[in-house]
Write the structure tokens for this entry.
Amino acid sequence: MTSFGPDIHISINRLLARLAALAEINPIEGTAGCSRLALTDHDKAGRDLVVSWMRDLDLDISIDGVGNVVATMAGEIDGPPVMCGSHIDTVPTGGRYDGNLGVLGGIEVIETLRTAGITPHRPIAVGFFTDEEGARFQPDMLGSLVYVGGMALEEAHDITGIWGKTVGEELERIGYLGTAPLPAAPPAAYVELHIEQGPVLETEGFTIGALTGVQGISWTEFTLTGQSNHAGTTPMALRHDPGLVACRAAAFVRELALELGHPQVGTVGRIELDPNLVNVVPATATFTVDVRNTDNSVLLEAERRITEFIERAADEEGVSVASRKLARFDPVAFDPTVIDKVEAAAKALGHSVKRMPSGAGHDAQMLARVCPTGMIFVPSHKGISHNPAEHTDPSDIEAGANVLLSVLMELAAQ
Ligand code: HGY
Ligand code: MN
Ligand code: MN
């Protein structure tokens, strides 16, 4: 079901081969996963490979000041393209599909059209955005945030990563400090193909997710300062132990998420004690809190109660608290017409389809600020992601990429 007839389909073998080739860049030993943190040499190698595939398709390639890369296939008319894409940076324990599927799926759609000798009415673009994961440089979705004008380029360049380098320094070092204007001119529409990274589609037996939106995300880093001391000689009543407060906070985040109920989630993913030694009461504890909800008022309540708990627990222990917000994005609703097109395309191709929100953050939640936007999900086996064991069946990948082809054709025909 496309404006170009029902007989155009992607090549799943070509798409799987590209996913495998990209996963070969810093593979995680003994797994199907790979590790390419944003703006590292591995990220550069991945970028270079994907750009070479874009060049092979004779696309017009632009690189902007935050390293976003957009490749455009000319249409019958000029003007804003219908855009697809995602990210190719990974978390350190990444799978091969998170982000990569949306970018390589878009390249596959364009190659399918090229091979069929089809020129879309509107231009079609495929892009990858810098630092979607936010594992090295916070916030996450950094490249797409700058792309839509949500953060000034200078501010993004000055962000210092977990290893002390800035975004600007690293972009220059890997040769992806581009000149394309920012914020970018809004595309006509944006559609992102992505793995679900959760258990819903597989558990409920659906092949395609027609995303209704993305839940709100809040990341905060807390630094607690107590008094480092000897673990053997310091009586318990005289301790000021930041490690204790950090652990109580982690337990509270879980209890609060359970109290607020689904879809509230809360995670303390990073705890760093200093000096982190078996026989020393810690001097400092630095930890992160990731809380999310589709309802912004509940998310605000969660943020407030967590901060209150930490301040009270720190006060009881005689420990000081400092905090900084690493990311805060409100929930986003996708465009009803794009959601409808995803659902209709899936049904026309004979696939089961479920409307659902996204638990994970995506570049689409930024593009939704400037153009009609939607997402296509395919199932994650056992809901596993941000884990080298991440897997999606080839038949589901093929279904998702064909839905992407159909939806892009429908949007490009307008
Ligand atoms: O954290 C997220 O949801 C995304 O993977 N950056
Ligand atoms: Mn992703
Ligand atoms: Mn991810």
Observations:
- The chain has two domains: 12-214+332-412, 216-329.
- The chain has a mean pLDDT of 97.
- The radius of gyration is 22 Å.
